[in-house]
Write a structure and sequence with these properties.
The protein has 19 helices and 19 strands. The protein is of the alpha/beta class.
Length: about 450
């Protein structure tokens, strides 16, 4: 009964969105992956034309989902918004009137830890940061998205968000946002060409201004390594265990990246950091959408945004900076009661739908993962989100990384900042440092 219930409810919640997206394509600047995803949207929409009949037939069979309580965790900033949307959901689903929905403020950064501590006492539906998905799957805190509906979920959202919601080959969550990444904020009266790292640095030096980039962060640091063509990802099994480290940092590409980091650190304009609120005398900073209002205040009329720049490597080639993309996901806890599970899945599908993602953007500025929502005029008019969208086409979704990786990456950056890895280090010395780094990374998956 579970498969039938979940399929019916997800079709009801998502069918309209799929049909509405039939004639739309992904952003003109999307990568080949995003274009493939957009083609899937069209195919899924065509296949969905018979869904209303299926829903009508099932609606005659299921008219009462019993009674129960559903606990929902979301960030404090969207508690009121979520309550409003749940009221609309209840109005659309009178057959679920026996359920009480309680929304509690629990940030996506804390949700996973709280769930893992006590799954039974945790929320039934909750928002979490994508880098926590492996831990949640391993702890038995996530119900997989019903296979009969997984393709529809994948078709509606961008490829990066879908990848972030997947462990092994299984989709475990509903994508909610594609707004957690980094790009360039800059003062357009100082920076004349934001497309070139060398020109940004030169402009900042000439003006006596600072350029902020957090090179001792395993998150920001990847902009150089991935941009140069080096790889560092981890494979996980369906239980969320790390099974393999895929790394090519100890390579010519890695040497190019680390030498560029060393060169940047030598500039008199360089400051290590990524928070607008902590920046002083700043003309450019690599940061995220969460600091857009602070950046507007800092730069005033000269406020501008752009994707990350390219850089000229030590080998004479030009590389576009890359890095991670991050996402907010909506999870459903496994339930013993299949009727309650169906209600939770239907609610998750609704809260992650195109309509609600757009409404959430308008209410609190969260950038949607839904492909159609991303093409709305309002979303495209947001300068920070537009810059991030441009950047995300060059990034990879941040998958699952061992906690020790982040500490190790910080040590690598600190070695550059302190001069332990000297500015005049030979390629052999740099390769040795990267080989040690890679070997340690690989040990985390054994």
């Amino acid at each position: 009964m579970k498969k039938k219930l979940v399929s019916v409810l997800l079709s009801a919640a998502m069918g309209a969105t799929l049909l509405a997206g039939c004639g739309q394509q992904a952003a003109e600047t999307a990568t080949e992956t995003a274009q493939d995803t957009a083609e899937t949207v069209t195919e899924a929409a065509q296949e969905a034309t018979e869904a209303p009949a299926e829903v009508d037939e099932a609606a005659e069979e299921i008219t009462d989902y019993g009674t129960g309580e559903v606990k929902v965790w979301v960030a404090d900033a969207v508690v009121d918004f979520t309550n409003q949307q749940i009221a609309k959901f209840q109005e659309a689903h009178p057959e679920m009137s026996g359920y009480t929905f309680t929304v509690e403020a629990t940030g996506e950064g804390d949700a996973a830890g709280n769930m893992i501590t006590d799954v039974e006492a945790g929320a039934d539906v909750y928002v979490f940061a994508q880098d926590q998905i492996a831990r949640l799957v391993s702890a038995g805190a996530l119900e997989e998205v019903e296979p009969a509906n997984a393709e529809a979920v994948k078709a509606q959202n961008d490829a990066g968000a879908v990848g972030a919601a997947t462990v092994g080959n299984t989709l475990y969550a509903y994508p909610l946002t594609s707004d957690n990444g980094y790009f360039l904020y800059y003062d357009k009266s100082v920076v004349t060409d934001p497309s070139s790292l060398e020109k940004i640095v030169a402009d900042c030096e000439a003006a006596g201004k600072n350029f902020y980039f957090e090179i001792n962060s395993g998150w920001y640091q990847t902009a150089f390594f991935f941009g140069a063509g080096a790889e560092l990802t981890y494979d996980t099994d369906d239980a969320g265990n790390f099974t393999k480290c895929n790394s090519t940092y100890a390579s010519d590409a890695g040497v190019v990246a680390l030498k560029e980091i060393i060169e940047l650190a030598q500039s008199k304009s360089f400051q290590n950091g990524s928070s607008v609120s902590n920046a002083t005398n700043c003309a450019a900073i690599v940061d995220g959408t969460w600091d857009s209002e602070a950046a507007k205040e800092m730069f005033g009329d000269n406020y501008a945004c752009a994707k990350l720049p390219s850089f000229e490597g030590s080998d004479g080639k030009t590389y576009q900076m890359s890095g991670f993309g991050g996402f907010k996901l909506l999870g459903v806890k496994p339930q013993e009661d299949e009727l309650k599970l169906a209600v939770c899945d239907a609610l998750a599908a609704y809260l992650s739908s195109e309509e609600v993602q757009l409404a959430r953007f308008e209410a609190v500025g969260w950038g949607p993962s839904n492909l159609n929502a991303q093409q709305s005029d309002a979303v495209k008019a947001d300068e920070a989100l537009s810059a991030l969208a441009d950047q995300l086409q060059y990034t990879i979704p941040q998958g699952q990384y061992p906690g020790d990786y982040w500490t190790l990456a910080t040590s690598l950056g600190d070695s550059v900042i302190s001069g332990e890895i000297a500015a005049d280090a030979s390629d052999e010395d740099i390769l040795k440092a990267l080989t040690d780094f890679q070997t340690t990374c690989e040990s985390y998956a054994k």
